[in-house]
Design goal:
The chain has 623 residues and is α/β, with parallel strands linked by helices. The chain is 18% helix and 28% strand. It has a twelve-stranded parallel beta sheet, with helices on one face. A ten-stranded parallel beta sheet has the order 4-7-10-13-16-19-22-25-28-31. A ten-stranded parallel beta sheet has the order 9-12-15-18-21-24-27-30-33-34, with no helix packed on it. Strand 37 and strand 38 form a beta hairpin. The N and C termini lie far apart (96 Å). The relative contact order is 0.05.
Length: 623
């Protein structure tokens, strides 16, 4: 009777736990699994296929799981005599399977088989991890396998952030999440392992905590304390993971001293780095420090010093950070600045090449979000949002050669899939301001609310292609030439309360129809911009002749298909929804003789009003 009652209580506990009744959607859970897999890949615990794909939705076999466990535990993979009738000595996982079985972490079946190609169940994988961590007695106390195993796993945190049920086949992504959880769990006194799994599995990974000490060894149990210690101590190929909390960096500037190292916050924005130094830059990456990666930090509390980062090193990666002071990139190449949030700050480029600025959000820069001067080549700027709603700025993107230090400010630049928007109290003189820019393409962008969309302030710019852009609500011109330009090719753009300086044969004057003019600049399904753009080549020949493959998917990861939209690619409305109105198919493309005027200013109109307003556009000749 007591045993039956125990099983009933265990089952009720499990049914009430978040692991079984998660409020997250399936997509959110899959995203977490994908992120966990990426983290394990970076730590070297799991491997991709021959093409580098992690295949997180693929089911995992018992043989594959054995290999992962052996890598985590750093167990010897010396030649083993097989113990199972269905695992030959030539089987790719023979050594992994037998070393895991010998150590008692997985078991075969009573018939003498291991079933290496069978997909592993959730509870089987969890059971192995519970054994490794030494919680066998807890399993017995909770009722034995499988329910006692699952309850113990939930209690110690192995199944944290999961939404998986007993009997469910385990995918590579699901495994990544439970392995990632297990890496940081303290083993019981009965475990065969010494220390936490992360220190065993990843000897090149070090830890930093606000409660640590720079006199420590940098392990998970004895972490360092400061950003400076990690940056100046790591050796080539090593990583430092920062726990959540505030790090008050009272020392002078942090100067990186080696190459190919990574500093990352374990949780995005969880580690808040606060520099008190008023030196020229808080973080200095000299030319000999190549391949530095800085990920997921909150640097937004830094206001001292003229720059957060001063970089001269090749291969810098600045990924997923919150930043409130400028980043200066000078005399370097192959730099990636991706998925960061810039608050009142931006990027300053000088004499650099192969710089990728992608997926960032720039909010209310003091001067410019992106400034480039003095011979920059092969810049790729895409999927960013540039937003100003608080004060006046000259330009979101400024490529400047007023100092005449070189023949051009930028050559061979591609700018695509960006949103540049001004609203509220903000004033934006120019969406993009060009000086001495050459051989560049600007396509599939949205510029909304700027006084001028794109301005060329000197006569030195040449060979500029403008395609598939939306210019909306500009007070002046959609684009303007203050001193002329050589080789300007503009077409297939949409102008909403905005006017070009040149004739375009295949462009539209129409209401852009954004989802929300204030915060969502995707186009709706009834926009004239849907499927009316020009197909843009997916390859871009750089300054030195190198060919770059352009990532033409939009900021939500959607590829445009054969006939791209003008402006933002994705149509986020459900196609089954009834639209406000359908644009008449016979509406003529604009063939200007002079300046186009609106008889009245309107943004959205109903279907009933549309027919009455067919004549609202008129051409005033001779202007």
């Amino acid at each position: 009777m007591k045993r039956l009652l125990s099983y009933i209580l265990i089952t009720l506990n499990l049914l009430c736990m978040p692991v079984w009744a998660s409020n997250t959607t399936e997509n959110n859970f899959q995203e977490k699994c994908t992120q966990a897999a990426q983290e394990l890949f970076e730590l070297g615990i799991i491997r991709g296929d021959e093409n580098g794909n992690l295949r997180t939705n693929d089911y995992l076999t018992r043989a594959e799981f054995s290999a992962v466990l052996a890598r985590v535990l750093k167990l010897s993979s010396d030649k083993f005599t097989t113990e199972f009738t269905d695992v030959s000595e030539n089987h790719w996982a023979n050594n992994y399977i037998n070393v895991i079985e010998t150590n008692g972490y997985m078991k075969g079946y009573p018939d003498g088989t291991f079933r290496p190609n069978a997909n592993i169940l959730f509870e089987e994988a969890v059971s192995a991890l519970v054994r490794i961590l030494g919680y066998d007695k807890s399993v017995e106390k909770n009722g034995g396998y499988p329910w006692g195993t699952l309850l113990t796993a939930a209690e110690i945190g192995i199944t944290h952030k999961t939404d998986i049920s007993k009997g469910e086949l385990l995918t590579r992504g699901m495994l990544s999440q439970i392995i990632l959880n297990a890496l940081y769990i303290s083993p019981s006194g009965a475990a065969d392992i010494e220390g936490v799994l992360i220190d065993i599995a990843c000897p090149n990974v070090f830890f930093v905590s606000p409660d640590g000490s720079d006199e420590n060894e940098g392990s998970y149990i004895k972490p360092w304390k400061t950003f400076k210690k990690a940056a100046e101590t790591l050796k080539t190929g090593q990583t430092a993971i920062f726990e959540d909390g505030k790090y008050n960096e009272t020392q002078s500037s942090v100067i990186f001293k080696t190459e190919n190292i990574t500093l990352k916050s374990r949780n995005q924005f969880g580690a808040v780095i606060i520099f008190s130094s008023e030196e020229d830059a808080n973080i200095i990456i000299p030319s000999e420090s190549k391949g530095v990666s800085i990920k997921n930090f909150d640097f937004s509390k830094n206001t001292k010093g003229s720059a957060l980062i001063k970089n001269e090193g090749t291969g810098l990666r600045i990924l997923g950070n919150k930043i409130a002071n400028n980043i200066r990139i000078t005399d370097c190449e192959q730099v990636v600045v991706e998925r960061n949030l810039f608050e009142g700050a931006g990027i300053i480029l000088g004499n650099s090449k192969e710089v990728f600025v992608a997926g960032n959000e720039f909010e209310n820069p003091v001067t410019y979000s992106l400034y480039a001067d003095n011979t920059n080549t092969d810049l790729m700027i895409y999927n960013n949002i540039f937003l100003n709603d608080s004060h006046k700025t000259e330009a979101a993107i400024f490529m400047d050669n007023r100092k005449k230090q070189s023949e051009f400010s930028v050559s061979h630049c591609a700018i695509w899939n960006n949103v540049i928007a001004c609203k509220g109290e903000g004033e934006l003189e120019n969406g993009i301001l060009f000086g001495s820019v050459k051989n560049s393409k600007i396509f599939n962008n949205v510029v909304c609310g700027a006084e001028t969309g794109i301005a060329f302030y000197d006569s030195q710019s040449e060979n500029i292609v403008l395609r598939n852009n939306i210019f909306a609500k500009t007070e002046g011109d959609a684009y303007a030439f203050y001193q002329g330009i050589r080789g300007f090719d503009s077409d297939y753009n949409l102008f909403d309360d905005a006017f070009p300086e040149t004739k375009e044969n295949n462009s539209y004057f129409d209401v852009a129809e954004f989802i929300n003019d204030e915060k969502d600049w995707h186009i709706t399904s009834d926009s004239r911009a849907m499927h009316t753009g020009e197909v843009v080549l997916d390859k871009f020949k750089g300054y030195s002749g190198k060919v770059f493959d352009l990532d033409l998917s939009d900021r939500d990861g959607v590829f445009p298909g054969d006939q791209p939209n003008i402006g933002a690619f994705q149509n986020v409305l459900d196609p089954s929804e009834k639209t406000i109105f359908t644009v008449p198919s016979d509406m003529e493309r604009f063939e200007p003789k002079g300046k186009v005027l609106l008889e009245e200013n309107f943004n959205r109109i109903s279907k009933e009003d549309w027919e009455e307003r067919m004549g609202v556009w008129r051409v005033e000749a001779g202007v």
